[in-house]
Every structure is written in structure tokens, then in C-alpha cells.
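Title: Prediction job returns without error message
Component: structure pipeline
Severity: low
Priority: P3
Assignee: unassigned

Description:
Job completed but the reporter wants confirmation the result is attached to the right record. Sequence as submitted:
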Amino acid sequence: MSQTAETLTAESGAPVADNQNSQTAGPAGPVLLQDQHLIEKLARFNRERIPERVVHAVGSGAYGTFVVTNPGLGRWTRMQMMAEAGAETEVFVRFSTVAGSKGAPDAVRDPRGFAVKFYTSDGNWDLTGNNTPVFFIRDPLKFPDFIHSQKYDPHTNRQEADNVWDFFSHSPEATHQFTWLFGDRGLPATWRHMNGYGSHTFQWVNAAGERFWVKFHFKTDQGIECLTAAESARAAGENPEHHQQDLYEAIESGRCPSWTLKVQVMPEADAASYRINPFDLTKVWPHRDYPLIEAGRMTLNRTPDNYFADVEQSAFDPGHMVPGVGPSPDKMLQARLFAYGDAHRYRLGINHTRLAVNSPRGCPFDHGANYGRDGAMRFDANGGRSVNYEPNSFGGPAQTGRALYGGLESAGVSGSYGPEIREVDDFAQAGDLYRLMSEGERDRLVAAVAGSLGQVQGGEIGDGIVERSVEHFRRADLEYGGRVEAAVKALRG
């Protein structure tokens, strides 16, 4: 018989007669293996969880729009979505913390991921960044070690201050980011009250083929608001989904959050002689050298109907670019062009780009026009009768012959090279940031640093970790280092 929408069915579509009682061999007998509905429910339940993200596992997301407000962006880029003021592009944004595993509180001190998927008319552009304009390291070879130092210790199964600060003490380039992290902005009040940054340097190419280097800044229109350490501890303890709840309730009640996208643009020729290596992820470009230019406004106005489908299965890949935007020689970005896509292929499967949240939309080739076939969970027609090779004589999709962006110059012998440090060393910008802070902000920064660094074990190894760490802060600013040293000594007795 035909089934109504209210009829509960098995995954095969057959009606379920009883969803309350398992089949047994008599009223008091053992459960039967023949109870296909029971077996199916338990087997599916066992497989409901997919591997969590190694980093950025705790997250929230929402849909919205990006509207161009600057009519002159064509001077620097041929991105179709940036072509004229008023042009609107659908977006999906995922916010996240970095270190915690699924279920960890989202209001803790941690960098925040700020990933934006633009569903452009030329395909998807993924801008994956953080709520800080810099990062801890600049060479991807150090990334697994850095994350291991921040994650759970193999023996104690918890984050250990010894590991966190030992890695930092051997990585002076992290001083700038640690100053951001332990400052007020390491504890944003909500996802809505923080900025987002592309962090890396990217490439823009205009219609004439001229290249520019560009940095992306999403400035919150709600204003920057931060939690104190005590407020963070209370929020995290009382409600692990503090940020998630706030974002959901804000959008559902019509208080839709927005960010103004601003860019810094550097002519290609400036990069060679600029006093700061423009491709060093641990450095910023001072605004006095390259002022912020408004580009548009992003507004989030729709919560996902299903968290797992859209937030957990969302996959952002910095390698997803569209005509007019491309990579730079930033080593961290170059590695992320591989690592992100590879993580999703492992976590979600080879066909993850065909999931609704990740699929292109609003362009002539929705769902992609290519020769990718087969693989686990291929849930569409799989190309039907069309051939799966190129070139071919059957009218299949073909290349355009026009590069999305300009190539990157290279010179010299291949090998492992240390960082290029110009006039600005690993400590100068951390010191600048410290001196920009108010006295109250400095007090809270020093207390936060000392509260964590002071947990390092005693003894020769621990004392060495503390001494090296304090020296990094001292080289950033003598007062900064001196105050941290005094505060740590007071805590360690």
C-alpha cells in the first residue's frame, strides 16, 4: 500500500510496524537478529559521528549575503563578485575555536576560526582565516608540532602548560600572536563581537593582468566586546555552547550581525623592498603604510536548518579560488592549499564538495562540471552516460585557457631555507601591540600570561622554559617582560 508522509519507514522505505518493542523469541526470550529495524537503528547510531576536525572542531555557522559597497575595486581585481557596487553574493560562515575537541566550551581563551564561503557566479571562493591578523608560526613544517603542543598530552590527556610554553620558548616568532591571544581579544564576548581576518597575503589580478598583494579584514559592525577571565570561566562552565546560542538567538530574533570587509592593497613591485616581509604570517602591514579600503558588507541572516548537514559537514579550502584572486608565496598559505582539502577528503570523503553546503550555486556549473566520478557516497547520477576523460569528442566540459591568477616568481636552488627577516624582527610588532594597549589591558594581559606560564613545572627544565619565554616578552618590550617575570615569580613562589 502507499505510505503517507506520517508513516515511519525503514531506510528501504518499508513501513515500520513497531518502533517501541524489539522482536524477541517469546515474551521473555532473547532479542532476535532477524529484527532488521533494530539492527538498522543500532548500526546507524554507531556510525553517526564522523571524524572531528583535528583543529577547529568546535564551531557555529550561518548563511548570509555579501554586498559590494566600493565601485572601484575593479582597479585591483577582476573578481566578478567585486565588479560593481550593490553586487550581492550568498555566503556561509563558520566560526570556531582551535584547540578544543567536540563538546568543549566555545567561550574559552583560544584563537577563533573565521571562515567564509562565497557562492560566486564563477564558483566557490573560500576565505579561511582567524580573528587575529597574524599566526603563531610562519613555516608549515612546524604546524603539526605546534598543534601537538596545544592539544592533549599523550600521558595526562589534558592540555599541559609545560608543552604550550616549551614550544613557545623555542619559537620566538610566536611572541606577536601570544600577545594577541593573552590580551583581551583572546576572549571575545561572542562570535558577533570580534573581527575576522584572511590573515595571509593573497593575490589580486585586474582585467589588465596587473597583480597586487591584498589582505582581507572583516570589521565587526557590532563593536569589539570581550569577556574577562572570570566571565569566560563562568560562561564556559554554565553553558558550553555560549557563543553558539548567542549567534542563533541573534539571527532568529532579527538582530542579524554584520561585518564591513576592508582590504589592504600593495602594488606587486613594493613587496621586494618593503621593510617587512609581506608574506610572513607572523607580521602585519601597518595601516599607515597600506590604509584600509572599504570593499563591502557581510550580513548573516539565516541559521542552518540542520547543524550537522551545514556546519559539521561544511568544508573550507583556501585552494578554492575564482578568477581574479590567487595565492602568494606565504609558506603557511602554500601548505594550507594542500592540507585543508586533504583533511576534508579524509574526514568527509572524496565527494564532500557535492554536499549541499559545499556545492557551487548561482553559477552555470552548479555542482561542478568536471570528470570526477565514483567514490564513496556518490549520491547523484555520477555523470550518467557521459564519458569520464578529457579531451574528448562528445562535447564535455573543456578548459578555458585563461589562468585564474598570475604565477609566482621563483629563483635560486631548491632547499630548506630559514625565514627572511627584514627590518622588523620577531619581537618589534609584539612590542608595538603591547604599547598600544591601555594600562588596564596591559594588566589583564600580564595576568593572563603569568597565570598560564606560572603553571609550568619547577626544576631545571621548567625554569628554562620560563626563562626563555620571559626573554621573548622582554625583547618585545622591557616593561612587558619585566612585569611578566615578576608576576610569574609571585605565582611560583
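Comment from assignee: result matches the submitted record. The longest strand covers residues 59-68.
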